[in-house]
User: Which sequence fits this backbone?
């Protein structure tokens, strides 16, 4: 379960950004359906929606989590590549002179096996500048801290550390190195990130394989998916030996009596239908296995009613404490019947060009209450993060001058 994600100096983010999944205790709306207990003295949110204007930094927020996961999973393998074969890794904030000098910072706090872990690192290009891991039962305890190639260990709580400290390279995360050797605590951290999926809502290529693999391996998923997409007049769906998806539609005679079915290659379906089918695989996988799902532009190509239904899966039948964090533009979702105030977040650029992340719950009751019209206030720019083109007299004048 994700508790908090923090990062700094990544793409459009210069100052530290923090997404906190802890529910605000004073907010009483949707407690039983939209939050779940942790046994740690606080409850966590099941879903979070992030809104903001174009270019504000929503996609870069999703990209920050994706970048952290990618580095953890690929750090060891990438260190074995030739320099010219490594991916470009210049993700620092370019609108401040210090961005190129300072390292990028990433940290997550999460609960796994009833223990609260806090893991993070600072990285500059491919070099690991700092890395740390803490755990907390009653009191937070340091397991290891790293500065460059200098390490400090908790010998009692993290005995696996000293054994491998000499063999880790300066461009490899220590957690990734230890996970390659199947050490106990490092594998817990590594596997938590394996259960975190980060995808773009604009490109189904990142997650369409999830649906295909589920169709191949799970008859239960096939039944569930077929039932879910009945409203699209799709009667069946299957995966061919060539791993192509086929959807089946009824065929009728002159008297509108069903006489058979017609298979369509998935590419004959609309973009919205294709996205929904692939997205349902990712959501089913997340809910059934208790994963965490990050999606950029969840509402692209989908009708607002569909997006609402997808959220209901997480709010009403979330049996394994899954979490769903996504970015969106569709203001129809900004509704007190759909979200708590602490579930709605915003991204906006400040006057220095840096993206800032903040929650609706940061505004006091004089600005927004649980009875407020969230959508109206957002579109009126009460919360910021909703800028648009200003159609000024100068802009109109320039168009007339072009015509003349």
Assistant:
């Amino acid at each position: 379960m994700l508790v908090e994600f923090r990062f700094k100096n990544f793409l459009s983010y210069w100052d530290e950004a923090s997404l906190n999944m802890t529910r605000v205790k004073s907010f009483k709306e949707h407690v039983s359906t939209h939050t779940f207990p942790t046994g740690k003295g606080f409850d966590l949110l099941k879903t979070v929606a992030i809104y903001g204007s174009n270019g504000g930094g929503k996609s870069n927020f999703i990209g920050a989590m994706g970048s952290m996961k990618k580095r953890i999973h690929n750090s060891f393998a990438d260190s074995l590549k030739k320099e010219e074969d490594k991916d470009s890794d210049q993700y620092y904030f370019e609108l401040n002179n210090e961005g190129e000098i300072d390292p990028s910072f990433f940290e997550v706090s999460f609960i796994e096996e009833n223990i609260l872990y806090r893991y993070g690192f600072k990285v500059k290009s491919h070099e690991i500048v700092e890395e740390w891991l803490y755990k907390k039962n009653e009191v937070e305890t340091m397991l290891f801290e790293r500065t460059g190639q200098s390490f400090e260990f908790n010998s009692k709580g993290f005995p696996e550390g000293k054994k491998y400290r000499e063999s880790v390279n300066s461009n490899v995360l220590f957690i990734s190195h230890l996970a390659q050797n199947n050490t106990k605590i490092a594998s817990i951290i590594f596997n938590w990130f394996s259960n975190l999926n980060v995808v773009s809502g604009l490109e189904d290529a990142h997650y369409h394989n999830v649906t295909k693999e589920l169709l191949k391996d799970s008859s239960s998923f096939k039944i569930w998916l077929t039932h879910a997409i009945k409203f699209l007049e799709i009667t069946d769906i299957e995966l061919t030996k060539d791993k192509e998806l086929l959807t089946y539609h009824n065929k009728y005679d002159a008297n509108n009596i069903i006489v058979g079915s017609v298979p369509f290659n998935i590419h004959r379906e609309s973009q919205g239908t294709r996205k929904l089918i692939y997205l349902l695989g990712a959501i089913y996988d997340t809910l059934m296995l208790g994963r965490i799902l990050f999606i950029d532009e969840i509402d692209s190509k989908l009708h607002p009613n569909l997006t609402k239904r997808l959220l209901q899966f997480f709010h009403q039948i979330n049996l394994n404490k899954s979490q769903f964090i996504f970015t969106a533009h569709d203001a129809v979702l900004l509704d007190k019947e759909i979200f708590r105030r602490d579930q709605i977040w915003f991204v906006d650029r400040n006057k220095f060009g840096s993206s800032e992340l903040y929650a609706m719950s940061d505004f006091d009751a004089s600005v927004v209450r649980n009875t407020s019209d969230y959508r109206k206030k957002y579109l009126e720019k009460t919360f910021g993060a909703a800028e648009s083109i200003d159609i000024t007299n100068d802009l109109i004048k320039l168009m007339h001058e072009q015509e003349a």
Summary: The chain has a mean pLDDT of 91. The chain is about 30% helix and 25% strand. The chain has two domains: 1-195+290-404, 213-289.
